[in-house]
Amino acid sequence: MEKRLVLAVLLMFATVVVVNLLFPPAPRPPRTPAPAAPETVQVAEPRPPARAEPVAVPTAAAPAPAETVEVVSPLYRVRFLSRGASLVSAELLRYRSLADATKGVAVQLVKPGEELLTARWVVNSDTLNLSAAPFAASARRLELTTGDEPQPLEFTYAHPAGSFDARVSYLFYPDRYTVDVRGALEGLDGGWWLVPLGSGVHNNEANEKENLGSLALVVSGPAGIQSRRLREIAPGSRLALDGPHWWVAVRDKYFLVALLALDEATRLGGALAWGGAERNGARVVSTVAVSRDGRFQYRLYLGPQDYGRLAALGHGLQNVNPYGWAFLRPIIRPLAGTITALLLWTRDTLRVGYGWILILFGFAVRAVLFPLYQSTMRSQMRMAELQPRLQELQSRYRAEPARLQQELMKLYREKGMTPLTPLTSGCLPMLLPFPFLIALFFVFRDTIEFRGAAFLWMPDLSRPDPIYVIPVLMGLSMFFLSWFGQRAVPQTNPQMKMLTYVMPVMMTIFFLALPAGLNLYYLAMNVASLPQQLYLNRERRKLMAQAAPEPPRRAPRR
Fold first, then answer.
1. Omega of the bond prior to 244 within 30 degrees of 0, cis?
2. DSSP secondary structure string, 532-543?
3. CB pairs under 8 A, 24+ apart, for 100-108?
4. Helices (H), 166-302
5. What is the CA radius of gyration of the chain?
6. Are 446 and 253 in contact (CB under 8 A)?
7. Residue 150, CB half-sphere, CA atoms under 13 Å: how many?
8. Alpha helix ranges (H) inside 415-492
């Protein structure tokens, strides 16, 4: 019965993970008829502006020349165009692309040909489109080094007729992925500043299909954190997530482009997404309120989904890519965070690769649990010794439940046991490693620290073993562990014997598609269990010999 319970738990665990892989949950997005182009979108205005007349931006017969402005720090390299003050490139210098077409180059967040943060001012149904306006930059290039003070970059535009002036200022930090943004519209007041965020993060992963499927628009607003996958926004449809929001983000599996409110008074407005021709992408924009004196501000994040960095920014931004389904998160998130912190600390302390750390971690988990397994085995032996007495009491007091309970408690006290002994001597200790296994699954699937971590022949521990050696070894170790365990206990049930062969095969097939790091951890834990199992077998036989009744003595012959 205990082995059947173990099998049931294993199958339930497999069902949760497989279903989560094949059918990742996502709330059904509300869809509305296709709107007009983003330049004429209507955005709800909480208070009427003092001025709402549309202001024309003259266009020349030929487009104004666009200068490139570059900002470089130890963490990133970003490029702007002076035309429209648009962000056209954001490279993360400490991360390398794993995609076939760009393998080895710095990770790029902006898709080719797209422009982010392009200047637009919206009030009611009127839009001041500054995407073609020739802004003047305060510098052609900024270079920040470690220890430098933050450096500003400002784009300014003056209307030829003197109707208004526009100014957007960026403050860059050498050791952060955040940029503080402040703007002013002299001669205009109220309304909203429209901030385009592109149609998703540029692909930098080897498994492009999986990464494109993870592209999502995520917001933190009145309804909490909401996530909508971009592939679910059909071409020609629109998704609207009403604000105010603490942050609005576009993310893929590992990287993130996000707008953040600086304080309660400057929270972001709505987030909009338009389905386009590209099935896995949708154009996303957010809005920032413009005050009556024509000013606005927000914070921009261009970087990795680093849990510590995102948590430091507040308002739950670290949950932009949550682990697993909602009902698992209260358990998995703290455990996964603890495991990640422990693995990172071990790497920094021992200065070894993650592969060796996972092997050590598997051995350590099994060593920590060994005293519990030993105690469980001894409890099983004591329970086996009590079985005849328990059956006798159950038969004698079958019609008297209260009396039966009293007699059972009396028997437990005589033997120095508690009512919890049957539970602790059963399958519960055997299930303790599985929370670690589930947490590690999500850690390797979604944690950027393990992205591209190589070990031996495996180029990436967060992806399956390309030649399936580790899953096969894991299955073999599982078989020997089960085989040694059954040798110590006489087993007459053919179904139990069959599980010795069936379960390792099933688990091997299941683990083939899981991250190599997860297989490596499970293999190490099984290998560490083999000498422990042999020791327990010897002790089990010793206890069984002590508990066995002495054979009757023969009467002496006369």
1. yes
2. HHHHHHHHHHHH
3. 100/206, 102/204, 103/206, 106/77, 107/204, 107/255, 108/202, 108/204
4. 208-213
5. 32
6. yes
7. 13
8. 421-424, 428-431, 433-446, 469-487
Give the pLDDT confidence score for residue 96 in this predicted structure. 93
Residue 264 is classified by DSSP as: G
Using CA atoms of 266, 269, 275, 276 in order, give the dihedral in degrees to the nearest 10. Answer: -50
370: which 2 tokens?
Answer: 């060994």
Phi, psi of 411 (to 5 degrees): -65, -40
Q: Token pair of 392, please?
A: 């006798």
- Within a 10 A sphere around the Cβ of 502, how many other Cβ atoms? 12
Residue for token digits 């009611």? Answer: 124
Q: Which of 316, 100, 344 is nearest to 204 (CA)?
A: 100
Distance, CA of 102 to CA of 225 (rounded, Å):
33
Residue type, 196: P
> At 143, which helix (H) or strand (E)?
strand 141-143
pLDDT cut 90: percent of the chain above it: 24
pLDDT at 543: 62
Cβ contacts of 439 within 8 Å, gap of 6 or more: 332, 335, 336, 339
Using an 8 Å Cβ cutoff, are 464 and 513 in contact?
yes
CA 395 to chain centre: 54
Q: Looking at residue 455, what DSSP letter applies?
A: B
pTM over 0.70: yes
Residues in the chain: 558
Q: Token match 């095969």: residue? A: 505
Alpha-carbon distance of 376 to 382, in angstroms, equals 10
The domains located in the chain, with CATH, are: 66-321 (2.70.98.90), 344-379+423-547 (no CATH)
Amino acid at 64: A
Q: Residue 310 pLDDT more than 80?
A: yes
pLDDT in tens, 404-429: 778 777 777 776 666 555 555 445 55
484: left (phi over 0), alpha (psi -120 to 50) or beta: alpha
User: Cβ distance 70 to 53 under 8 Å?
Assistant: no
Tokens of 248: 């609005």
